[in-house]
Amino acid sequence: MLSQLREIVEKVSRVEDVHLALNILVRETCTALNTECCTIYLANEERQRLELMATQGLIFQGDSIHIRFEEGLVGLVKRSAEPLNLAEASKHPAFKYFPQLGEKVYHSFLGAPIIHRKKVLGVLVIQQKTPRLFNEMEESFLVTLSAQLAVLIAHAQSQGHWSLSSKPAAIQGIAASSGVAIGEFWFDNSQPQLAEVCPASTLDKEREQEWLLVSIEAALADFRRMRKKFDSEINKDALAIFDLFTHLLNDPMLRTDLKKHIERGDRADWALRQVVESYSNRFARMSDVYLRERAQDVRELGQRLLFFLHNSEHELQPVDRPVILVAHELTASLLASIPKEYLLAVVSLEGAANSHAAILSRALGVPAVMGANLNLAEVHGKKGIVDGYTGEIYLEPNKQILREYRNLITEETELHAIVNQELAEPAQTLDKVPVELLLNAGLSADSNIAINSGVDGVGLYRTEIAFLLQHRFPSEEEQWQQYRAILNSYPNQRVVMRTLDIGGDKALPYLPIEEDNPFLGWRGIRFTLDHPDIFLIQVRAMLRASIEHNNLSILLPMISGVRELDDAVRLIEQAYQDVLQFAPQVQRPKIGIMIEVPSMVYLIPVIAKRVDFVSVGTNDLTQYLLAVDRNNSRVADVYESMHPAVMQVLRQIRQQCEKYQLPVCICGELAGDPFGALLLLGLGYRSLSMNTSNVARIKYLIRHSQLSDLQQLAQRALDMSYGDEISQMMRAHFIEHDFAGFVRAGKK
Ligand code: PEP
Ligand code: MG
Predict the structure, then answer these.
(1) 356 is catalytic
(2) CA–CA separation, 211 vs 217, rounded Å?
(3) 275 CA → ligand 1 middle, Å
(4) Which residue CA neighbors atom 3 of ligand 1 most closely?
(5) Is the confidence at residue 703, as pLDDT, over 70?
(6) What is the pTM of this model?
(7) Which segments constitute the GAF domain (predicted)?
């Protein structure tokens, strides 16, 4: 059964023409289930009807046959989103006879909804002449087939194929950074090709051997990751190919041959080309067809390994005009490599709204859409629109859509000018309640962060970027220089520097960490406490950098228990004593922790005496509280930053901090979100840290809000059951107070 299922789905997935593909589907399903009739209907939401797309067994010559959503058994399956199994269809009260279909001969009916992400995309039906209930096996076959088909249909529709809508189809991704851009899509297709690698020699054989090993390990890790990714999907060829690659890469003969070439003085990429070509030629000469075909696989493996050999050295094609950057997986280094003035928007196939790349896009003020199903080869060079508010992408849009979006961009520009007029004014509510506005910095590669006149200091300086953009750990001197530049930029203000928080979606290229659950793994303080050497170097660099202005606070990420805190504080003290030896003027920094692992919410009474402040990381706190990966586009709708439980925990943190007189700031993305910031004020928070691009907007909102209104909103939010109820309430508040442009300037 399983193999039959797979075969059907694979056959269908290979065909681009919708009618042809669905004809194959119904024919194959009849054969597999030994039934006389199989029909597929797709839903046309615009017209509220199901359209017969293909059938075997009914009368249908490609003419249009529709069933309204409220009609007949097929409509019932669509509405109820449940399978319907009947021995005698005509006896069911919802039965409706469609004479043009010639259904009279069939008695039994089994219909299964085709559901993707809670949405019924269509209905798959089998029918038989004998009046009998379909058995459990048949029912589960049809349900499984529908589930797999749903993925194919959703994918095809997201690419603009198989769509029944008359509107130009937008490719739907996850809105990750607000704003709108119109421009040319740009994808770096300049990956080096194995066939183009030229003979090159090396003097440093050892370095070359090491480089090769690191690349092989990185490739193996990538194959494991890809294998896992495809595991739940339908393409068994994809699975097999990654197994084969892994097997080949682990083959001692291949490794020895590569080594031998390098021993002779060949550079690693040149060694790779020679070995791969010799292997693939050997396969190509074999008489067995199967083995002959493996020649291509070996070349593909070589190409992939070449990618890892060049990965961190490969220079991106220079970008010399404004573009919409498209990437398979957006990384900080990729973003950093394109001049800001040329970055109209970014689109990433992987990731979700709180992936670090998304946060970075927001920090840069660049519209971003994540988790978009784009065909990379197809989009490069095409014109289109990226809507960072809705997550929609339009490829080669028509004039009407272009006009709508041009208007939207004009409104955005106007709003920008309005909010920036008040940037230098104090952040206080209409009733004069002051709010501390701080900056989140550091994710950008630019160490020269703009001195933002509208802020009271830096609430979160992420130190990871310098570690991510290198081939090795940065030295104490390098770190010192970088931290000093930041601390000197804010001589009279507090700068909160966070110690290294790698792991999760921030892996160091030179220290691959492979884990099943990276967000629950070796992250943040867990990593640095296991490497006190790295931690001490970093803290010493920070302390030395703070000597001139004594404006440093140190923030510890991912603390999940008091022992970690105590151990980290001990190491900071050790570093402090070291620096004190040669710089007696250095002051002990204030120390705080991130509240981002839920355990720490309960431990506030215990830590209150041990730390000077806490900073709430709502990005991770939400992820851990709701058990939802912040980086996974499949569960992006479960990641609700205004989930009622998040509201409750934020209230609890606020109350506990007040009780124990512990200063608290919010540095997660919620603080820079228009709805989030106002709710946080209503909950009692008075210190918010956010990306530069949000400061002016949030300040404007604060300055035009009455605290008592916000308190009422927060109170109502705390009584609500659903996250979307909270968003709706906030949306209504924004419309009522003329703030609508902050969440969606115009369209929809
Ligand atoms: C957070 O988790 O909310 C946070 C501010 O840290 P990061 O996004 O860097 O994990
Ligand atoms: Mg965090």
Answers:
(1) yes
(2) 10
(3) 45
(4) 617
(5) yes
(6) 0.73
(7) 17-163
